[in-house]
User: What shape does this take?
Amino acid sequence: MELTFTAVAEDRPGPIWQGLFQRLWPSYRSWYLREPIEDRPTYLECRQAIHRHMPELTEIYDELCALAGGGDWASRALSLYRPPAYLSGCSQAIWPGAEPLLVRNYDYSPYVFDGVILRTHWLERAVMGTSDSLIGLVDGVNDAGLSVSLTFGGRRIVGEGFGVPIILRYVLETCEDTAQAAATLARLPSHMAYNVTVLDAEGEYVTVYLSPDREAVITRAPVATNHQEQVEWSQHARATASVERERFLLQRLMRREEREESFIDAFLRPPLYALAYRHGHGTLYTAAYWPARREVHYQWPNAQWRLALDRFVPGSCRIVYPMAA
Assistant: This one.
């Protein structure tokens, strides 16, 4: 199996984003309409939700809808308001060295992955991260030195709120540090359970547990896998080895001799590196974010790609994945 990752830069939405939309929309349309039409919110409900909870994004949302052709379904899907349910795996942790960094594995289906790294300047901040759903991000960093990453929270509940990629985008567009990000995450409604880890340029970090049916929980947990304060979906936790991965990372962090390089390398091997691509939670990439440098290193067992927010070089990288026996 192989995937091609593409890094593109466009300050305001324009022809580059429009090209991405044209390429990816057929797949997103199938995903968005896979559930009964009556379960999807109207365009007016979607726009009102963005304007109520993320007012700074309203103008950008309108621009994206226009570039997408102004279609009803595309405009609804781009809001990521009350989208269909979707699951991912993922592991992430804060390495607390002299220059703290956020390391994460993104475990997801290779068949519904954008493979796009996007550098933008939509509002007041420059933002670089792994694109998802054409408007959101699954991890990223901004020019204030704030980095964020997500994992699935291991709960079946689906409710009112936004898909978490647009929440991460909004945090990076509007926040400067971990305290601001935590407050923002706590007030935004998420349609499913997710764990969002935040690290800023000063080394301050939190992990916030989001859920649609209860208040967000702000913790000092340096590790997040696929459960929250306790395992609530045991079948999923067993299938993804969520507890085992969490324990492994916590043990690594307790090693006094643990070096930055060896900590990152641990994400490229079991139990963190997953090969369950056919089941939708194989590791697609490892990303190490240095927020103080505004840099990210994408890594695979056989390749590495370094990108910097202020020295961003568009390009592409073809990755061949090992397959499970």
About this structure: Residues 40 and 82 are 7 Å apart (CA to CA). The mean pLDDT is 95. The longest helix spans residues 15-32.
